[in-house]
């Protein structure tokens, strides 16, 4: 069974807040476990009825197979992407034409910032010892908003792929005798960004938000620690 763990674009975003230990005014910044952030959905290989390559048993692209098996961090372990951050947008439904058009029209200029910002916001939330607006002040809101509207010039749309699967029965039920399971299409869009370029883009957003937010000394210290550790587990 494949387990799908994705950074979603328009459909499912899960924001998990983890508290950090604070002692003697020093905040501990744990390395985030990205698997905690990704909504989970199972795709049973036996339920795949068709793929983009028009064969039920066709081999999936390496990036998609790794992603379904172990999440985005597993896909990033592929040698070809070892120096890149990967993001995967996904969409699901029964209307192939609509989903195909969505994947075709997906652009890194208009659509990718939503995915990137969702990961940035989750990274912010995992580093908080208190509520983020208390720890960082107006910087938090300014930074997150700019992330959703920011530019990521290094982002590259690498590939798209789809599979068709039989929908899983709810609660493990068998449904009506002889009733065929409905089929749904799962579309995936792979985006890559060189690590140095992504880090430069995010650091630029941090600098701009810092300059416009006038943080207090305590908030400025927290932001400085955030900057130093931001890409650990990103």
What are the salient characteristics of this protein?
single chain, 234 residues, alpha+beta, 4-stranded antiparallel sheet, two-stranded antiparallel ribbon, 8 helices, elongated, disordered N terminus
Low-confidence parts, pLDDT < 50 over ≥5 residues? 1-41
The helix/strand class is alpha+beta
* Sequence of secondary-structure elements: EEEEEHHEHHHHEEHH
Number of domains: 1
3D shape: elongated
What is the averaged pLDDT score?
78
**What is the rounded Rg?**
20 Å
**Helical stretch tally:** 8
Helix share, percent: 25-40%
> Could you give the order of strands across the largest sheet?
5-7-8-6
The biggest sheet amounts to: 4 strands, antiparallel
Give the tally of β-strands.
8
User: Oligomerization state of this entry?
Assistant: single chain
What fraction of residues sit in β-strands?
Answer: 15-25%
* End-to-end Cα distance: 26 Å
Concise structural overview:
With 234 residues, this protein is an alpha+beta fold. It has helices spanning 62-70, 72-75, 96-105, 112-126, 132-136, 138-149, 195-213, 217-229, and strands at residues 2-5, 22-23, 26-27, 40-43, 48-51, 84-93, 156-166, 183-194. The model is unreliable at 1-41 (pLDDT under 50).
What does this structure look like?
The chain is of the alpha+beta class. It has one domain (2-120, 150-195). It contains eight helices and eight strands; from the N terminus they run E-E-E-E-E-H-H-E-H-H-H-H-E-E-H-H. The strands form three sheets. The chain has a four-stranded antiparallel β-sheet. A two-stranded antiparallel ribbon has the order 1-4. Strand 2 (22-23) and strand 3 (26-27) form a beta hairpin. The radius of gyration is 20 Å and the shape is elongated. The model is unreliable at 1-41 (pLDDT under 50).
């Amino acid at each position: 069974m494949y387990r799908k763990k994705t950074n979603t674009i328009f459909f499912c975003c899960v924001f998990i807040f983890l508290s950090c230990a604070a002692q003697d005014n020093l905040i501990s910044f744990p390395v985030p476990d990205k698997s905690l952030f990704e909504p989970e959905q199972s795709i049973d290989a036996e339920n795949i009825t068709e793929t983009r390559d028009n064969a039920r048993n066709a081999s999936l692209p390496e990036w998609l197979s790794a992603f379904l098996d172990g999440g985005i961090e597993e896909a990033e372990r592929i040698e070809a992407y070892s120096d890149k951050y990967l993001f995967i947008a996904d969409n699901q439904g029964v209307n192939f034409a609509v989903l195909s058009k969505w994947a075709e029209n997906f652009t890194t200029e208009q659509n990718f910032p939503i995915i990137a910002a969702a990961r940035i916001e989750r990274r912010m939330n995992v580093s908080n010892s208190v509520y983020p607006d208390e720890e960082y002040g107006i910087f938090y809101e300014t930074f997150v908003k700019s992330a959703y509207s920011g530019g990521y010039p290094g982002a590259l749309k690498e590939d798209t792929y789809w599979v068709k699967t039989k929908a899983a029965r709810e609660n493990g039920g068998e449904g009506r005798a002889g009733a065929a399971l409905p089929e749904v299409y799962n579309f995936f869009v792979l985006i890559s960004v060189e690590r140095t370029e992504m880090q430069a883009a995010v650091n630029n957003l941090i600098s701009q938000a810092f300059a416009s937010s006038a943080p207090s000394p305590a908030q400025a210290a927290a932001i400085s620690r955030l900057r130093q550790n931001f890409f650990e587990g990103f």
